[in-house]
Design goal:
Helix content is 49%, strand content 0%. It is mainly α.
Length: 140
């Protein structure tokens, strides 16, 4: 069997895999790779950064649900009183959400952040059939 050279030409592997680990013919990607690609595409679709603090994320969810703590609570899988504690202005009543609730808040915000912008950009990407080079690139 003939040795195949990788990107640097010094790999020395005898199978169809290059030195980076990706299969040349099929480009088989793991689930983690696909997840990273999806996250990168979602980041590219956003025009504004998502709220960074938990309080800002909860304010966004409440505004999206017209101030209903009950709707936000059912969306996150917690009680209405828990959401009321999280957004309370009294410092002694406020308690930060746990790690599982933090992840649920983050996912809910990511799902609802800029839906029109994401839909418009996905439609534009679907209409584009080929990669277009910028006009200032010299060809040849």
């Amino acid at each position: 069997m003939q040795k195949l050279a990788g990107r640097s030409g010094q790999c020395g592997r005898t199978d169809a895999t290059d030195c980076g680990g990706a299969v040349r013919a099929g480009w088989s990607l793991g689930e983690a790779d696909v997840g990273q690609i999806e996250q990168g595409l979602e980041r590219a679709l956003r025009t504004r950064p998502i709220p960074s603090s938990t309080e800002a994320r909860l304010r966004f969810l409440l505004a999206r649900n017209r101030g209903s703590t009950r709707k936000v609570a059912t969306m996150l899988g917690v009680s209405q009183r828990t959401v009321q504690r999280w957004v309370s202005k009294r410092a002694e009543a406020r308690r930060p959400p746990g790690p599982m609730q933090f992840r649920a808040i983050e996912e809910a915000v990511l799902d609802g952040w800029q839906p029109r912008v994401r839909a418009r950009r996905r439609a534009q990407a679907g209409r584009r059939r080929r990669y277009e080079l910028p006009g200032h690139v010299r060809r040849g």
